[in-house]
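Entry type: protein chain
Record version: 2
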Amino acid sequence: MAEPASTPPQGAHEFLLRRTPDQILGPFYPVRRTPDRTGDLTQGGRAQGLVLHISGTITRLDGTPVEGAEIQVWQANRHGRYRHDGDVSAEPLDPHFEGFGELVTGADGRYAFTTIKPVAYRTSPTTWRPAHIHFRVTTQLEQFVTQMYFEGDPYNETDPFLRSARRPEALIVALQPPAPGQAPESRRIEFNIALATG
């Protein structure tokens, strides 16, 4: 006997992606700065810290890629400081790391950039934010903000922003070995983002 028409085909749920959890824009969005558009925030490896090659796909909930999505990324440096007037931390700035880039996805919805791994930073005498990278995705239909966190960071469990996410595990990534052609001491990350509308 045939299944009712309202029943999704077997395995269809495997092709439906749940929306990536959103996060706050944060106090250090670089409003007065021009983003790097080369895809390499390390200035050719001159920035201090562990080099990361981050890539992923921007999709709609049905898994179709979003072409022409503008992606802004920004982050603290390896000392936990942002290049932002509002960050009054005593930690040093890295003259070779701006920490703010802008990317555009191709027809396959893919993006890629090179950066360094940020570190956790203190937000009060007793609290810390875990290491994270901010993402702001703008399409013709949607503007979306989230943050990417790192597996094993001791402050993940106590961060109010990460813990308030619907699925915090969707925002936590693991460092992978580099791909062929990438520096052996660098690491690779895949971070996909599913938008509600695209």
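Comment: The chain has one domain: 23-194.
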